[in-house]
C-alpha cells in the first residue's frame, strides 16, 4: 500500500494498492523521473529555439503597439495634427504646413478655427485612449501565448518520460491515473524545476521551494516483502496510534508541517491481508484503542485520523488520507474474566469476535 499526493486536494492523499514488490519500484522510478526532469526541463528552456520563440512573441507585441500608434499618427497628420511622444506619455499639437503651431500662435487664431482644432484633437485623444486601454489586453494575450509555449515545451520533455512509465504499469489503472495527474502538475508548475534566471516571461519568477518537488514522491506505507504467506503481526503496545497509524510533523520556519510522505502505518496496515494478535488487557487500558479497533472492523477499512480531530480540538488544517480497505483476522488474547466481562457489557464484542478458543 502506498500513499501519493492528491494534486487537486493536497490534504486528501490518495491510496494506491500495488502487486508484491511494485511499491518500492514505483517510488524509485518516481525519484528517477524527478532527477531526469531536473536536467531535461532546464535544458529545454535554455535552448536557442525556445529563446527565438520568446523573442518573436515580444517583437510581435512591440510591432502591434507601434503599428497602432503609427496609424493614429498618420490619421492625425492628415488633419494637420502632430502626435508627440513625451516622457509622461503622448501629446497632440496643430500643424501649419510642416511646422508645429506654438501656443502663442494658436491663441492668435480665430475662435472658430481654434474650436475646430480642439474638436479634432479631442477625437484623436479618444482614439489614443482606446489604444492605450487595449495595450494591457495585448500584453495579456502575449503572456498567454508564452504560457502556451511553455506548456508545449514542457509537454514534449515530460511526455516521453511519463509514457515509458505508463507502459510498465499498463495493468494498474489507478497508477495510470496517478501518472496523468503527475504529468499535468509538472506541466502547470514547470517553474519548480527551473532556477530563477531560467524562468521564462510567462512564469512567476521566484525562488523554488526546496520541498516543491517533494509532492512527486511515493510513500510506501506497507512493503510486503514476503514471497509467500500472509503477514502475522503481534502488537505489544496497542495504543490508538499504533493501531490505526499517524501523521508525523516536521518543524519548518517555526511551524509544524505535515504531508502525505509523513504518514506512518499502524498495526492494522501491517497485518492487512493476514492476522493481528493483540493482548486484551493492554488494548482495553489504552484510551480509544478498543473503540478505534471496533470502528475499523465495522467499516472494513482503516483511516489514519488524529486523536485531536476525534475530540474536536483540531484548529489547523490536517491530512485526511483516503481510507485503506481492511481484510484481516484479529485475535484478541486474554483470560476468561475479561472474555465474559466483554461479552456481558459490550454488545459489539460477540458480533465482531465470534470464535472462542481455549488454550492452556
Number of separate strands: 15
Mean pLDDT: 86
- Report Rg: 35 Å
SSE order in H/E notation?
EEHHEEEHHHEEHEEEEHEHHEHEEHH
* Residue share in helix: 40-55%
| Strand content bin | 5-15%
What general outline do the C-alpha atoms trace?
Answer: elongated
Give the strand order of the largest sheet, numbering strands 1, 2, ... along the chain: 2-1-6
The end-to-end distance, rounded to whole angstroms, is 37 Å
Largest sheet: 3 strands, antiparallel
Category from helices, strands and their pairing: alpha+beta
How many distinct helices?
12
Low-confidence stretches: none
Primary descriptors:
elongated, alpha+beta, three-stranded antiparallel sheet, 12 helices, 360 residues
Description:
This protein is of the alpha+beta class and 360 residues long. The chain has 12 helices and 15 strands. Helix content is 51%, strand content 15%. The strands form 6 sheets. A 3-stranded antiparallel β-sheet has the order 2-1-6, with helices on one face. Strands 3-4-5 form a 3-stranded antiparallel β-sheet. A 3-stranded parallel β-sheet has the order 7-12-15. The radius of gyration is 35 Å and the shape is elongated. The chain starts with a strand and ends in an 8-residue tail after the last helix.
